[in-house]
Amino acid sequence: MVRKMMVAALATATLFAGNVVKLDLNAKYGANNFHTKGAENFAKLVEKYSDGTVKITVHPGSSLVKGNPLKAVKDGTAPMTDMFIPFTSGGGKVFGISALPFIAKSYDDAYRLYQLSKPAYDKVAKKWNQKMLYAVSWPPSGLYTKHPVKSTADFKDIKARTYDKNSAKFIQMAGGDAVALPWGEVYSALQTGMVNAVVTSSASGKDGKFWEVLSDFTKINYAYPLQAVTINLDYWNSLNEKQKAAMLKAAKETEAAQWEASKREDEVALKTLADHGMHIAEATPQLKKELDEVGRKMLDEYLEKAGPEIRKIFDAYRK
42, 75, 45, 77: which is closest to 63 by C-alpha? Predict the structure, then answer.
């Protein structure tokens, strides 16, 4: 309670410092990542629509938050942050929705699932003393390996770095081994053989220069996981109505632009991977069939333990 009062006082003091609110936004990835570029564009729009009364400084590379982003924003360590939703501790089963395998088959599916899930995301964010401003899908997750993967039989020698419990369980159910590693350790782990595969997007493979340590990328379209931007509620509540409206307008425009940017990033990243000699393949019919069965089992297990709110999301999605 004391911490919350201190944050609220700081937010109010910031507001009345020349009638200009100055906020810091922690961006998880580097300056060249398309999510970070989207956050920077969001900051420009907020300043424009608020007539210069709200100024947001974006800090790339997780320079403000080294630990849990939900906790950092809740405590006011960072007024704002972006976060990879499925990997964010504290989000529970709700934050895992976008990373369930083979639920979304396209960007359109992913966006529809996001819209249906948004009230649940908002509820989790509020529980953690923050407001979700916008969320954007990564390009679809694929499988990077050192050999072609044409069926689940090819998973027997796979030791894959996965990004959450869902992806770890998926690899295990498909016949491989899953290894939990921070992103910063993945490249060296691939070099040493600690892992020999990675479940991630084309964009992450491009940024990680995976062509130097792996040879194949299979487009299994595992999932379209979300990256979101949130703001601490005490800072949010210190804004006047015009400033809040400016931020929401900027968020809406940024979200729409960034979903399109994600599609372009996927195209650019796939070309970059291919240009550097990586073999890119669509999933074979056999692999699709086998992996869809794994996904179906995982969804059934997930829903068995989920509450009515999440079940309603998937009932609506299936319709």
Answer: 77
What is the pLDDT at residue 91? 92
73-102 CB burial, b ≥16 within 10 A, e <16? bbbbbbbbbbbbbbbbeebebbbbbbbbbb
Only one residue has tokens 């044409």, namely 150
| Distance between CA atoms of residues 8 and 233, nearest Å | 9
Closest by CA position to 250, among listed 28, 51, 114: 51
Residue 296: other Cβ atoms inside 10 A = 13
Asked if 115 contacts 316 with a C-beta cutoff of 8 angstroms, the reply is: no
Measured CA to CA, the distance from residue 151 to residue 283 in angstroms comes to 9
User: Is the dihedral angle over the CA atoms 67, 68, 69, 75 positive or is it negative?
Assistant: negative
Phi then psi for 186, rounded to 5 degrees? Answer: -65, -45
Q: Where are the beta strands (DSSP E) in the chain?
A: 21-26, 54-59, 80-84, 130-137, 141-145, 159-162, 177-180, 197-201, 216-219, 226-232, 279-282
**What pTM, to 2 d.p., does this model score?**
0.89
Q: How far apart are CA 248 and CA 268, in angstroms?
A: 30
As a whole number of angstroms, the distance between CA 42 and CA 52 comes to: 13
Taking only the tens place, the pLDDT of each residue in 262-298 is 999 999 999 999 999 999 999 999 999 999 999 999 9
Q: Can you tell me whether residue 148 is helix, strand or coil?
A: coil
Q: Say how far apart CA 68 and CA 83 lie, in whole Å.
A: 9
pLDDT of residue 12: 47
Classify residue 1 by burial, with Cβ atoms within 10 Å: 0-12, 13-18, 19+.
exposed
- The predicted-structure confidence for 50-59, as pLDDT tens digits, reads as follows 999 999 999 9
Q: Mean pLDDT of all residues in the chain?
A: 93
